[in-house]
Batch of 3 targets.
Target 1
Amino acid sequence: MAGFSLELNEDQTDLRDWVHGFAKEYIRPAASEWDEREETPWPIIQEAAKIGLYGFESLATWFSDPTGLSLPIATEELFWGDAGIALSLMGTGLAAAGIFAGGDPDQLAEWVPQCFGDENDPKVAAFCASEPQAGSDVAGYRTRARYDEATDEWVINGQKAWATNGGIANVYVVMAVVDPDLGARGQAGFIIPPGTPGVRPTKKIKKHGLRASNTADVFFDDVRVPGRCVLGGREKLEARLARAREGKSSAGQAAMATFETTRPTVGAMAVGVARAAYEYALEYARDREAFGRKIIENQSIAFDLANMKLEIDAARLLVWRAAWMGRNDVPFTAGEGSMSKLKAGEVAVWATERAIQILGGAGYTREHPVERMHRDAKIFTIFEGTSEIQRLVISRLISGIHIR
């Protein structure tokens, strides 16, 4: 087990500075343009791929850090640049995390590189979990997968909602029900290879924020994938289902295994947005004059900024703790992963709102980035488990009671 330290090592400091430099040079100057265009920023993805910032090698390196901190460090810096563009870069990581969480070594080796493509032809991937009638309620999934023994194929039918990179993905990772009688324990993850027939996306969804990130619903109509495309392999799946049918522990639920892995990273995304808004408001308050003095000299403004700094640092510490625990297999006995995502998401919404208030009327216009940051921040109290779901997870763990 790696020791936990708040002092970053040389590799982590170099990573932070490298990603920050990319965010400052390439992401920030383009943020407003791609938000207005509401299109996937392929030129920035290609630039990131050229320098090795976008690709399975970098993600594997971040995941392999025994402290667990490299991924949240890099993520915070990207989202400091801009959340919409950063999600276009990081969205593929959610699909890769799904393969990491449930796949075997052969599946990781075969499919994770195909999620990203290469530096000359970068690709994106999509993790498909939510459905129109089942977002936080993973037990309510209706997408079905049945095994066809005659052809050694899985046949997948259903609809997935709010898929990041839906419609433009090279590889899809899809959660589906294989045994409806088992509820959430009767689910499995499936890899859908590039060019598989029957994958039918809807048009891109227009969103309040994260406009540079492509989001769409995806239909799966008699989608046939090879038997080896079930995450972890069919033998492991059948053993897990057998335990569940006998009432024994089935070692977790497919979608939740991915969410548990990614929640601290989502928290780091929110911290990046909050920090960007705080830094912009701080600089503005130092320069802006009203009533004959800098507005930061007013106690109300100064206290707001002090509270922003306090809350952002507190959120980051929760994220780092959860990331370290997850990487070192320390049990989340009090919902530490959920705590990190909950705190960071709500801090991002609050901090970006306070930034607008500090700028006043100027903050409400698109002449300044804080209004975009505020729009982007709201998603962090919604996706990968709403704030209410995070509180439910935490309350159940600390009480030992199945609170509804």
Target 2
Amino acid sequence: MFDQIRLDAWSTGLRSKLTLPLRVELWNGQQLDFSAEPPRVTLRIPHARALRYLRSPSLYNLGRAYVEGAIDVRGRARDMLEVVGALAAHSVPRNGLLRAWRRATHTRAIDAAAVRYHYDVSNAFYQAWLDPAMVYSCAYFEHGNETLAEAQCKKIDHILCKIGLRPGHTLLDIGCGWGALAIRAAQRHGARCVGITLSDNQARLAREHVARAGMQHLVEIRLEDYRDVGGTYDRITSVGMFEHVGLRHLPAYFRRMAGLLRDDGVALNHGITTTDTASKAAPYGGGEFISRYVFPHGELGHLGTVLRAMQEGGLEARDVENLRRHYARTCAIWTDNFESNAARIQTLADARTFRIWHVYLAGCAYAFMHDWISVYQVVCSKAGKGPGEIPWSRRYMYQ
């Protein structure tokens, strides 16, 4: 009886302030609708104990309940996130769950384990929803109507133009994924490339991609930590990797990048940032969900934090480009691909992993859309040099 009274009060209060395409189905057969339109999201509460998730509907609480099977949620992921986001905004103080990232120790062993957790689900799992080249980072939609495959190829070309890659240059790709950037750099520019990753699965398949492209003479894929790389390179790229480094370690990360770069070299760092100036996690518990279920030990810095760390590491920022709109679209396409191939994906991962990624991909699109997180490409070179190597304009990037 007490649970029913509290539920009635909750639903009455919610209806007075929000109209949501949501249906809540209770264990006793009762249904609660929060809009006159047909529900696009159905949230099933299997027993009275699960009502607590409704009474404190943060993104973390509801996401955890869904992932762990404590509640069932039906509907398209983007609709789920819109509904859950509205519930959280109505019920949870934005800053109440805006917590600082947990400062984890980033040893080689810890970082390798975190990367394997995220990337070694299986190569077939990622193939089911990425583009054919398996580029797992923000695409670049030059006109907005490109396919995902076209936009990912344009992203790689955009990066290679930004760093002024030339035939005979040596290129280090830190966090090379499945090798698409290194292969493109070798094919189109004749560069000699080294790609490094901490994922066994990525390294094996990347080497297969290199061999299939006939680029073994120009591309080497290594299973190696960036802290252990030797030599010097004309160009360095790092795409979607520095989120794993840790905020305290960013100056050392950029210092290592500077140490690997030739005096006249150019580097580019492409990575996700938080829009919170204090470098705190996403609001309403979204950051806590990511940290627990998706990116253990991952931390996002504000752009200002990143640029300061870059300068402290001996690098001068030459150019900064915001690609938030591009990543919102990329994640939306990934979400659609994931749902279109749900039957296959459910044969490649257990139910819990499927639910984590189902909500994670849509949650990223939601976060980029609502300016909780962003993504920047920063072109840089060694600090303290004369300005003669800096181009007069940005025209060269669009040739």
Target 3
Amino acid sequence: MSIANQPSHLPAPDQLPESLNAGAPLPVFRTPMLDGDRQLFAYEILFPTLAEQAQDLPQRVLSTITDGALTRLSRGNRAFVNLPPELLLEGSDVLLHQPRLGVVLRPEIANDPARMKLVKQMAQRGCQIMIDASDSALDDSLAVEALLQTAQFVRLDADRLSPEAMRERSSQLHTRGLGVIAGQVNEHTTYQRCLELPLQAIQGRYLLIPQPVEVPAVLSANRLSMLRLMALLEEGNPGPVEMGKIVRDDAVLSYKLLSCVNSAYFALPRQLKSIEQAAIFFGATRMRNWINTMVMCTMDDRPPELLRAALIRAHMCEGLAGGMPRGSSETAFTVGLFSLLDTLMCAPMEFLLTQLRLSPEISDALTGRGGPFGQLLQEVVAWEAGALNSGNTAPQRIRRMATVYLEATQWADQVFSVASNSRAAN
């Protein structure tokens, strides 16, 4: 569990013999689709196909669906599973009994009578169908028309389609009652264009990319206050008493911190009643990470999925730093958490780092992806983008990342939930 004392005598999972890793989680990750108000519309659940698991992929995917892992990963929200085509037949019984999970299908499936029969059965049971049209025009054939009549949503590729084609196709689909998703929205200019279209949701890397801002950066009073608090935590290596004084004047932050560390998820042996007690229990470095986490969770004007992404990065970096020197896990957590600070604060990373005065190894990792922590962060970013493959990354490492990712999503969702409920209570 993140930010808690871990047994140091156990070998890391990626160092275990091959036979002991047989039950490791299947690599799977979620990507959010946000509506025009930047609230979650749905998750897409993807299973990257790796060469070493190609033969048993269908059975492992079905097992992941039936054991409830996908429900936990989607937090009970609407989710669309991007399945290999062969699974529509091999897993027909499982899929027909999972109506809460929608599926993403390519238009070519319209020409396969057996799979189309199953798609219609799934739709009749309440399963929502999304057609991933990408940049291809949906032809006027009877087969494609039958698929469109079965589907509720169509996803278009905003990166490949021209702005004119994107506007025309989204309008046509919207007019006939289909929800349109803009996919591959990977920069803010495209995102701004998409806001003017009749879209149900927008999906892409734009969410994690800082918006262009004027230099020098002008932060709101609230952002400056957050930055000053973070800076105080970095100065002079404060101990438990000093941390208590730093946080004491912020009643909301104190409440969030204690609510989170005392939540049932972490199952502490006793309730912690003050910041000083919490700092003594967790240690000053870990407590500093907790405070920074809660500070970032107070940014209620930023998309919740962006905050969750920062928390997931933090936990993944920490969990994957097991083979590094002692104390590295806390530094790795900071690198992951702060890797989206420029996007969250709407300010250049270089400007933020001049205010925070972090250690050189953290600054190098955040600005140039330098050093071991920079490499670790690159690995995590590649994972969340679905860019890892078995040709460049050892299978044992991928299995380890799959385990850590699932832990990270559950941890991030729990922490964000506690922080949000604390905010509502105040």
